[in-house]
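Why does residue order matter? Because the sequence determines the fold. Keep that principle in mind as you read this record.
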Amino acid sequence: MLGSPVANRLAEATSPYLRQHADNPVHWWEWTPQALAEAAQRDVPILLSVGYAACHWCHVMAHESFEDHQVAAAMNDGFVCIKVDREERPDLDAVYMNATVAMTGQGGWPMTCFLTPDGRPFFCGTYYPKEQFLQLLSAVRDTWRTRRSEVEESSDHISGELRKMAGGLPDGGPAVSAQLCDAAVAAVLADEDTARGGFGGAPKFPPSAMLEALLRHHERTGSMPALDAVSRVGEAMARGGIHDQLAGGFARYSVDDAWVVPHFEKMLYDNALLLRAYAHWARRTGDPLALRVAGQTADFLLRDLSADDMFVSSLDADADGSEGSTYVWTPDQLNAVLGADDGHWAAEVFAVTAAGTFEHGASVLQLPADPQDTDRLQRVSAALLAARAGRVQPDRDDKVVTAWNGLAITALCEAAVALGRPELLAAAARCARAVLDLHLVDGRLRRSSLGARVGDSVAILEDHAALATGLLTLYQLTAQQHWLESATGLLDTALTHFGDPQRPGRWFDTADDAERLVLRPSDPVDGATPAGASLLAEALLTAAHLADGDRAGSYRRAAAETLAVHTPVLARAARSAGHWLAVAEAAVRGPLQIAVAVGSADSPLLAAARRLAPGGTVVVGGALDSSALLAGRDRVGGADAAYVCRGTVCDLPVSDVGDLAAALDVPV
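Structure:
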C-alpha cells in the first residue's frame, strides 16, 4: 500500500547484485512504476544506487553504509531507495551516468543519484564514505523540504541539458573510405605505449575491439605497425598480472600502466572480446602465445563462467571481503605448496618477490618469459591452482546477459576455426539455442535471466545486435538455416523499434515501446563493450550478404546509413571507436565474401577459406543454391570451387588453396 512502511523488496530479484542487498536494513525497491509512485505519494526524493555484483567499491559502500542501521534509518526516513544493477538495466545506468558525469566531471560505480519522484536528477555522485554520506542525506533532505523550488529548477535544467546531449553526433562527416580508416589507425598508433603495450596511461583497459580493428587493417593494407601494436599489447597483457596465469581469463583492467596489478573482477564481455582478438591474432600469425592464450581463455569461459549451456556475467573482485586474495602469492606461500626448490623456481618464473607487487607483500603472478622447462611449468601451475582452489573463492554473478552471450557465441565460433577445436563451435550452438529458448518471450527479446527465470527488463539495441552477429557466425559455420532465420528476426525487430525515424542511420539504445525515461539513451561511442549502433552495423553488414531479396537490400541500406552517420566518431575520437573501425575496415573491403561450392562439409577448400579469410569476411560453404551467396554457383570440373567477391564484384572461381590465398592477398 502506498505510503505504508515497506520492507526490503530485493529477495526475489533476478539480479544476484540486488539479492546481495536483500538483507540490508534499507527498504530497497527495484526500479518499478510502483517505486516512483511511492515517492510521489510520500512526497520524498528518490535515492538511486546503481552498481554491479563484481564491483569492489560497491561492496565497500554496502558494508559501510547500507548494512548500517543508522544510515539505513536516514535513508528510509527521507527517501524512497531504489537499487539498480547496471548490467540488468543499462538504459537507466546510461541516463544517470550521463547526469553524474555532467554534474561532477567523472563517473563510476557505485553511482549515487538523488531524483525527483518522476525521475529527474538533481544531485549525483559516486562512492561516499559513511560520515560523508550521512551528511549528504541530511543536506538533501533539508533542501527538499525547505528549498523545493531550487530543486525543481535544478532538475529541470539538468534534464534539459541531458536531452540536448542526447542529440549525439553532429550532422555530416567524412565518407566511409580507406583514407578514413588509415587516418583513424594513424591516430590510434600515435597514442600507443610502445614500451609497455596498449594505449594511453594508467589505468589501462584491454583494447579488445581495437585489436580486432588493427588486425583487419593489417590484413587490408599489410601495415606492419598495426600488427606490431597488436603483438605488443597482446603479449604484454598475456604475460602480465591482468591475465590469470594459472586458470586463464582476464581481469577487467590494470591499475598500473604495465599490466601488472589488475582490478580482479573477471567479466564475461571482456573475455569474450579478448578471445575473439587473440583467436584472430593466432589465426593470422600462428603466434604460439596467441594460440595458447586463446585456448586458455576459451577454457576459462567453458569452465568458470558457464551455466545451463549459457554464460554468466562475472566473477567478483573480492573474496571474503578482501580484493584479490584468491589470486596473489608470497614467496613463503609458494614454498609451502611446492617445496623450497620448486617454490624458488616458481617465484622467479612468476615474478613473485619479497617486496611484492600488490598489497601486504603479496604478488600477482606474471609470466615475463616462457621457461625452457615447460613440463615443470605445467606441473607447478597445476599444484598452485589446486592449492588456490582451497582458498575462499570470489562470488559469481550468475545472471545471464543476452548481449554478452552474443559476444561469447561469436568468439567461440571464431576460436573454433583458429584453434581447430570443434567443441567450441558446439558450445556456441548450445549457448545460442539456450538463450533463444529462454530470452525470446512472445517474439521479443529480454535482457537477462537468472537460473531458469527470465528478468522483466527488455532487451536493448546491443542485445539484438550482438546476438544476431553470433547467430550469423553460427550460420556461416554450420549452414543451418534456423540460425539465419533467428538472426534476421532480431534485425527486423531492431529496424522496426530502435531506429530514429527523423535521422536514418542513427539508433536509440532502447526500443520505441520500452519504458519512457527522462531521456531515450543513444550512445554511439564504443566503451568496455562496443556501442549498440556499431554492433548493429556489423550485424547488418554481414546479414546483407546472407539474406536474400528485399530483406538483404534493406540491411545493406541500413548498414551504409549507419556507417555514414557515425564517421565523426572515427574522425574525432578513434580511440573510442575500436569496433566502428573494425566494421569500417570490413566495409571498405566490400566486405569480402567467399562462397565455396563443395561436395561435402569437410571440404579442405572450405576449411582453408575460413582459416585464411580476413576479419569481417562473410564465408559460406555448401551445394549449389543452398544459400543466397551460393545461388548459381557450383563446383567446377568436379572440384570444389571458391568464389571471392568484393561488394558486388566477383573474381573467377578457384579450386586451389594457393590461388585462394592469392585472391585474398594473405599468406597461406
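The chain has four domains: 16-165, 178-317+397-588, 327-390, 592-664.
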